[in-house]
Design goal:
The structure is a homotetramer. Chain A contains 6 helices and 17 strands. The longest helix of chain A is centred in the first third of the chain and has 14 residues. In chain A, the strands form 2 sheets. A 9-stranded mixed beta sheet of chain A has the order 14-15-16-13-9-12-11-10-17. Chain A has an 8-stranded mixed beta sheet with strand order 2-3-4-1-5-8-7-6, with helices on one face. Chain A is of the alpha/beta class. Chains A and B meet through strand 1, helix 2 and strand 17 of A and strand 1, helix 2 and strand 17 of B.
Chain lengths: 306, 306, 306, 306
């Protein structure tokens, strides 16, 4: 039998302006668990239902944004096969040695036509989730704040959308679950390497390499309400929500970390299989595609990226 | 890149004692849509969020139970590769010509060491889901009864559990997401070919080839309540629920079709990836594993199979 | 023992520009049931869980808005006792004979210092709810659209807020559950004649007699999501939501009928008893008081009234 | 205007076998807050959304059960008026001086024809709820366990049901919201002094003065699931649930405190008004009346009382 090469989004490295504030945000409010820090001052975090050692890396810097997003692949063989693929596709490719990120094996870094940095890696140390692997409880009780289950996906804004979709479909084996078209012109692409509605999404944008948001999974619409309530109680900067997306059907709320990086927590979302047709949204339905209830885009959502 | 061969559970063929009653049950109460019938008298049904022409086939017979369960594979090449695998494994294999089931391409049928019949197929006609592929609504309004989203998995009771797990893991590429162990002795196996907690599950049993239940996906715990309410209003035979499973964390209710075949509708459930550790339940926790709240098994659940 | 005189908001009479469109809105989308019409062309509606013959009366007119809101009182004795009270308070009082509204007994109409018309009545014909009074089902299956359970309250904008609060507290026996204060100056008052967080609410406004919204009860936050989804599917004019109020804690969504009258559907909300302290919101928290998540008021909500 | 005399169930005094275990149960699992203890060793507790100083009093004793249930009345005048009523009705009446229970004013105690002890009182010290009265948050974050909102009602088993219903209706001003009839013979009575579906309920029983359960309010079906999950995690003794009642429509789960006293937490439930018809359940529907989904009574529920 054959198996899939790319397993899932494994980590996102986010630049923050003030590390203490950022750690407080991602732990106390989003509910991630701090699992390590390194001598560069980077902080490692994971969500309660993830097994690997980290899924978010925070780095203090002068400007917010995303350094890179990493995907875990099934094994070293797949890692090198995909490395060759992205190189042949024309990406600039770089190997980063095991241990440059604590607990993480060798990484293959490449740039995308949208101007972002991505990584592939086959190994990360096992930390374990909060329920364990023998007779686990079916829920967690003591996770903080929104208690995000896992890092789920990123939405990135960038320039050469068509070629990036080609890269993710043809080289990395993702499927195009949903797309936004202006006539024949591709505006947005929602790509899956799993049964999720998206593992990575791109929106066409004038500037390359921009970061729209990192998204974290919740289980229910009640959880989205609780996230909204917490946003208010702790006076976090809200973007929009609670609402639903037309694209993916996800139930969602957006807010900002103290550095201005957008976060999403969401629940639900349709199931995707590789033989499913691509769902197409036309620009006259763009408002409804993005914010299903308001049916109009807010300028914030379109323009504020880091 | 490499891709997964087995996509998902694609259909289950169920024997019913009275076709009219069965069709009423699966359409009015479970909320499936009748999409066809054939000259053998078989009736074809699908759930509202499935694209393929059918996922349930009903056949009138003298005894209830499952005729076979079919998995969709990615393409013909995978079909034949897997056919060779199951033959080499020692299964009895049979090809069934395209069209024997309406709208379905060639099928490869084989028997499992638990005494069940399984099928693989690469092609089924596209019917489309109820929301469509261009600017779809994010929900459906007019689906009947429990409005099950999709056929999700089966739980089967049978004899040679160890060899069947070997077959599904080594030949078909499934992962063992969760298992029940009595010491070293395998009692139950929950296997995934996706990111779901299970696509097929087996419990060890004295008799081969028994059918415990076919399960259908709902989105929320509120949907499980509504299913429970409908079961009561229409006086369907309930087995147990609403409750939660320890295994998979799913929120669930069990009931019987008019022929005595068990159905499940459920929501939630943990996410599985091929690099996740297998979760182990020990027999002293078996009650909690199956029914997380009652923490004891009812005899019905253990013994009533078709 | 003593009993309460005013039972509940019993009806609201709303002016609409086009009766056919309005009836479609209030039945197909809000989910009310049309129970009658009269020779003046007025249409009578009720929600599925109400027993009395109607709770909404629609009247075609040149301008939208509220004609009057009626409260059911416990008996004729209470009706006349309260009539005397409102007359002594200084209201203009008028008796309207039994049958002027179909199925409704004699009404005592009076004006409030905010410039609105209110009514009291002791008798309305029994229609029955949709589940019945003998061995009822615990839910309804075939109610349309948002399936509002009952007419719940109105929010009215008007001039002399202090005197109106005096009228409702001292004469009609309501309690002041929550208030908005600008220093000592009363901006908003939420009054209850039950265990609900409000049965009538007022906001101070330059113009007398304005109608902000009529509100209808749903059971859950899931129901609010479904309402939001329906608003989008049927392209109804949304105001804001889904969100939560700080005031009353209610989970809510606002939208407009085709004539521009605002509707609310909501779930939850705190419980009120006559010995509870009045909750006070200060104007620096007004945004959070009204829209708990966004923490800022939209101009629409403040200014668009009918 | 006239006002209601009896406001609500204000406290229940429960006998427990081991105070430490009991306090752990009612605080850590049910989520009540310990607010005091007295020199008799009694412990006082309240729920997070209650304002008065306590709603549960625990007393260590040799046998579990209920000592008495108290109702708060509107004022002293009502207290003495009702005292005279219950005396004239034929109850044995006793005044208990202010301060016999900490923070509680004078109480009027009387026995009911079902063999239970009830109390009326007009004053209890104000403790405040967990959100406060100025610009309160709309939710609480740090309440433990099931985080019950309030003590809601009791179900009591006893002998002379008809006379007790007479007492609560005619003397105390309750309404009979729902009843269970065996022909003309009253089996169960659900009585309301508010807009809730019940504030006190009785089931006919051979023995007088038995305690079936004390019930506490949750907001949602999700909260009931969480309660069920906690019951399992902490290995509390479950009775039945999660499920729904036909009577009142409430969504519910039952479990036992360490002394064997039954607790309920529930959400939802229909709204009651004094002009609503009494809903009647006939004994052939008794299973569905009590447990809407299973449609059959378990012996536990019928026979295990304290």
């Amino acid at each position: 039998m054959s198996q899939k090469d790319v397993l899932r989004p494994g980590h996102v490295a986010i630049r923050v302006l003030d590390m203490d504030e950022a750690v407080k945000h991602y732990t106390d409010y989003l509910g991630l668990i701090k699992t390590d820090h390194d001598d560069q001052g980077r902080v490692y975090l994971k969500a309660w239902d993830e097994y690997d050692w980290f899924s978010v890396v925070l780095r203090e810097a002068d400007a917010p944004g995303m350094d890179y997003m990493g995907f875990k692949v099934r094994d070293t063989e797949a890692l090198y096969r995909l490395e060759q693929g992205v190189r042949e596709f024309g990406c600039t490719v770089e190997r980063i040695g095991s241990g440059e990120l604590n607990h993480c094996g060798e990484r293959v870094r490449f740039d995308s036509p949208t101007g972002h940095h991505f990584e592939l890696y086959a190994q990360k140390d096992f930390y374990g989730n909060e329920t364990g692997t023998t007779n686990p409880e079916a829920f967690v009780e003591d996770v903080k704040g929104m208690a995000a289950h896992r890092f789920d996906h990123c939405l990135l804004y960038g320039t050469d959308l068509d070629r990036s979709v080609e890269l993710f479909r043809d080289v990395l084996g993702f499927g195009l679950a949903e797309q936004v078209l202006d006539g024949d012109f591709l505006i947005g692409a929602f790509l899956s390497c799993s049964n999720k509605a998206h593992d990575i999404a791109f929106i066409r944008h004038d500037e390359p390499g921009k970061f729209h948001h990192a998204s974290f999974f919740l289980e229910t619409w009640e959880d989205v309400l609780r996230a909204a309530d917490l946003i208010s109680k702790y006076d976090l900067s809200i973007d929009i929500g609670p609402t639903r997306h037309g694209i993916t059907r996800g139930k969602t709320i957006y807010f900002f970390d103290p550095s201005g990086n957008r976060n999403e927590v969401f629940a639900g979302g349709s199931t995707w299989y590789p033989d499913h047709p691509t769902i197409t949204w036309t620009t006259d339905n763009l408002g409804k595609a993005i914010f299903y209830h308001d049916r109009e885009l807010n300028q914030n959502f379109l323009e504020v990226v880091t």
